[in-house]
Amino acid sequence: MSRYIFVTGGVVSSLGKGIISSSIGKLLQARGYKITIQKFDPYINIDPGTLNPYEHGECYVTVDGMETDLDLGHYERFTGIRTTRGNSVTTGRIYQSVIDKERRGDYLGKTIQVVPHITNEIKRMMMREDDPEDYDFIITEVGGTIGDIESAPFMEAIRQLRWELSGRTLCVHLTYVPYLKAAGDLNTKPKQHSVKELQGMGIQPDVLILRTEQHLSDSVRQKVASFCNVDLECVVQSEDMPSIYEVPVSMQRQGLDAAILRKFGVPVGETPRMEPWRRFLDMQKNATKSATVALVGKYDLQDAYKSIRESLNLAGIYNDCKVKLEFVNSEELTRENVAERLSAADGVLICPGFGQRGIEGKIIAVEYCRENDMPTFGICLGMQMMVIEFARNVLGYKDANSREMDAQTPHNVIDIMEDQKTITKMGGTMRLGAYDCDVRPGSRTAEAYGVTSVQERHRHRYEFNSQYFDEYQEKGMQCVGINPESGLVEIVEIPEKRWFIGTQFHPEYSSSVLNPHPLFMDFIKHVLK
Predict the structure, then answer these.
(1) What does the mean pLDDT of the chain come to?
(2) Among 317, 386, 399, 459, which residue has the fewest nearby CB atoms (within 10 Å)?
(3) What is the dihedral of CA 107, 112, 117, 122, to 10 degrees?
(4) For residue 529, what pLDDT band results from cuts at 50, 70 and 90?
């Protein structure tokens, strides 16, 4: 029978609820429990797929093709689980489900209200009633902060579940303890107000996580415990760490997982050693090499390419290397300044994206990298820019382009497929989720993977135009990855270069702490050479 852990936040947003949820999942997993983690977001969008990255960071894609919040990337990287559409729920999706049922007549003419209809749908999804898997623990992170009007139905649903599933639920509340530099004082008052607000909604937190930039004394923790009606062992601090991957070890050291199990009345047993995780942390601290990778993209925001950044860092650690990432805005790249901007890098990654803005700068970057034989990795739109640059400068089609950028281009080396052209619903034309890919034996890519059949996640609308397949092959850009069902090109490479590979899919979605992705591993290996 599943137990439910709810992770909420107060005072300010961006405190790291996703990292705490992932850490709790990792610690329970290390004790042998089967877990899953899900994110409930209060915004009314159906999913983050149509959101600008400046609004909400990167859009993460699950194996079954759901566009989700970036926190699901943390869940997967920390725990190695594979999330699905059931792990990401928004207010918009909940309302859509309820309205669809009302239109079908499922409610038999009743007046549809937030309570009970919306809250019942939230509870149904929180309990994962459509998931056939049996989990020991289901961890639910609720986006936003306590007091947000959008979060109220989620809080009411949690309150009801706490009552209905007595003994099988636990609330972890994460809030900020600010340090007032002028007064030299850590102030717990915002924390107390946040807990008071939560209590006003009928929810008493069981565990408090204090997000802090300064170490908290036991007396501060005792004060918080007394004011908030929480056991002292259940007041845990989350200090700034050199790396997010040190958080699970810090939480374990403070006994968070043991406190959670005791609250559930579950035998605690021995503390897991988590040796693979600790070995990884040792490698991270003791890396002896360094390398700089330039990220060429149009979103000057760390979270816009979160999974790519983490995949590069993880691959670096396993290559005994600390990777320094330098963002290069493709909108500002010109033939005059490209050498200045890229020559100091050891490798270049051409980032994914959508739309016209910044693509000419990406093409200039690809040309510079190809001509100067720099290790280069193109992902999704980045791979398409490799294809367009090659068409313009090697095949001789100076007007080559993607149909996405120029609907009238006579050399549409990137195009939308015929069966997609009649679909008008946004997102409906996209290839989303995991697809099979056959990799050509003997290719650089097959060497990196170590196998010739893989499955990778996609998020794109336009494809390599197979009418040009033979021309590319003859001139040196090899199409070494093919989808066996559709025949679509998934991977291109130039074997004569040190490392020049583009993937139509997003390998970063499959990279985790204990299993870094082989393409990123091979890329960093050649960057170091």
Answers:
(1) 94
(2) 399
(3) 120
(4) confident
pLDDT for 99 equals 97
Q: For 102-159, where are the E strands, in sequence order?
A: 137-142
Measured N-to-C along each axis, helices 17-30 and 256-264 cross at an angle, to the nearest 10 degrees, of 70
Tell me what percent of the residues of the chain surpass a pLDDT of 90: 88
What pLDDT sits at residue 315?
98
Name the active-site residue from 117, 173, 460, 506. 506
Residues found in the chain = 529
In sequence order, what are the beta bridge partners of 458? 433
CA 53 to centroid of chain Cα atoms = 12
Burial of 236 (0-12, 13-18, 19+ CB in 10 A): buried
Q: Are 92 and 48 in contact (CB under 8 A)?
A: no
Specify whether 506 is catalytic. yes
Q: Which of 380, 437, 479, 493 is catalytic?
A: 380
Question: Is 234 an active-site residue?
Answer: no
Strand partners, 459: 432
Q: Catalytic annotation on 380?
A: yes
Given 411, 508, 517, 526, which residue is catalytic? 508
